[in-house]
Write a structure and sequence with these properties.
alpha+beta, Metal Binding Protein, Guanine Nucleotide Exchange Factor, Chain A, 3 helices, globular
């Protein structure tokens, strides 16, 4: 029979390891039961040459940036948020909201912009969001967002680039 103290200590140690992995930003691996192909396919070397090390970690290794570190968190101008890997427009600034989570959040992606897969890291199933065109990891979607969708697309800011709207002619 297992001693209760040993069981609790083991559970605490496992929780600590998972927490340390998250704090260090180590890659979360999505459940990849079926290989997907995307419109834009590049070698690992090509992605590494194009992206910063931090962007590569997030987009290609399913990493996460620390909360409250993205400059896009405070981006409030009108415009479009696009994939940092392939520049596909993903989110309109009109759907961005302040979630208080530390990552740029949106309540709806642009049509035909993102794909979903199951991420089963950390002992739970989450819905991972990736760029439809290049497959780059963007973040996750949760069901605690605002109306009208009730969804919160919690995106890594380093996985995105912002393109301000052109000034209107008056």
């Amino acid at each position: 029979m297992i001693d209760r103290r040993v069981l609790l200590a083991s559970a605490a140690a496992l929780a600590g390891l998972f927490g340390l992995r998250w704090l260090r930003g180590e890659p979360a691996r999505a459940d990849t039961k079926t290989a997907q192909t995307f419109e834009i396919e590049k070698t690992d070397a090509q992605w590494r040459a194009q992206l910063t090390p931090q962007q590569y970690h997030i987009l290609r290794e399913h990493g996460t940036e620390p909360p409250f570190t993205s400059p896009l968190l405070k981006e409030h101008r009108k415009g479009t948020f696009a994939c940092a890997g392939c520049d596909l427009p993903l989110y309109s600034s009109e759907t961005k909201f302040e979630s208080g989570t530390g990552w740029p959040s949106f309540w709806k992606p642009l049509p035909n912009a993102v794909g979903e897969s199951t991420d089963s890291t950390f002992g739970m199933a989450r819905t991972e969001i990736h760029c439809r065109r290049c497959g780059g990891h963007l973040g996750h979607v949760f069901d605690d967002g605002p109306k009208p969708t009730g969804l919160r697309y919690c995106m890594d800011g380093l996985a995105l680039v912002f393109h301000p709207a052109a000034p209107s002619a008056t």
